[in-house]
Amino acid sequence: MSGTFFGSKVAIITTSKCRYVGTIIGADKKNELTVLGNVKCFGTENRVENVTTSNTTATVIPIMQFANSDIQVLNVVHEHPAVKSLGNIPVQSSSSPHKKSH
Fold first, then answer.
1. How confident is the model at residue 60 (pLDDT cuts 50, 70, 90)?
2. Which CATH number among 1.10.357.10, 2.60.40.1120, 3.40.440.10, 2.30.30.100 corresponds to the domain 3-84?
3. Are 88 and 56 contacting, i.e. CB atoms less than 8 angstroms apart?
């Protein structure tokens, strides 16, 4: 991951269809991990049928790591001024979500 993405606020949708919003605070290129800080979970938001979601947005998780292979969609919500690249994870502005191909 390029260091230029650090400090950017992003929204991630995982392969389990849960959405998380947080700030990129780190990455582990060797183990293919992305680390977010001050993370809020928004659940599946009706992306999965027959799944009950609770109001989890009130809880802020200080640090959370995601395997890059578990990230289905990554949107930049608020760019750090120098945002350019996130290594092998394709990203788009929040106006047009990008889905990773499998």
1. very high
2. 2.30.30.100
3. no
